[in-house]
Write a structure and sequence with these properties.
alpha+beta, Peptide Deformylase, two-stranded antiparallel sheet, 3 helices
Length: about 170
């Protein structure tokens, strides 16, 4: 097992849509194992494969410390099928933007289709923090960082301050 290096903003891999997983084999299981080890080493609750330099549609979520009834979840090739109309503004952070937090507007509930580690098609309905983390991580594999979810004025402010060296990731 290995702790992988977290890719930090502004790395180009964070801005690219990744490829779907085609082979559900031992290599995939090794990648997922290393991703879990990495996510836990950095105290994350979600991780997308491109955040560790892997260009595959793999997402991990583990909010079991907050939601005791939810187990760690691996989602392969996830797609959001529906978003609730009800939205909520809450603070988010990201392992690729260490120490930077912003309030992001997200749907309260989502329905996601995905494959499990063995290639079985699944569907899950998520709400609250679980829905937020899924949206954040699925955005990642589609090349969207949470900065793109900020209102334009905050996005411009972030880019100016980043270019001036205020935010060094």
């Amino acid at each position: 097992m290995s702790v992988l290096k977290i890719v930090k903003y502004p790395a180009s891999i964070l801005k690219q849509r990744v490829s779907p997983v085609k082979n559900f084999n031992s290599e995939l299981k090794n990648i997922v194992r290393d991703m879990f080890e990495t996510m836990y080493a950095y105290n994350g609750i979600g991780l997308a494969a491109n955040q560790v330099g892997i260009e595959l549609a793999i997402v991990l979520v583990d909010i079991s410390k907050v939601e005791k009834n939810l187990m760690p979840l691996v989602l392969i090739n996830p797609k959001i099928l529906s978003y609730s109309r009800q939205k909520k503004m809450e603070e988010e952070g990201c392992l690729s933007f260490p120490g930077y937090y912003e309030k992001i507007l997200r749907s309260k509930t989502v329905v996601v289709s995905y494959y499990d580690i063995n290639g079985n098609k699944k569907e899950i309905r998520a709400e609250g923090l679980f829905a937020r983390v899924l949206q954040h991580e699925i955005d990642h594999i589609n090349g969207i960082t949470f900065i793109k979810r900020l209102p334009l004025n905050k996005r411009i402010r972030f880019h100016i301050l980043h270019s001036l060296g205020k935010y060094k990731f």
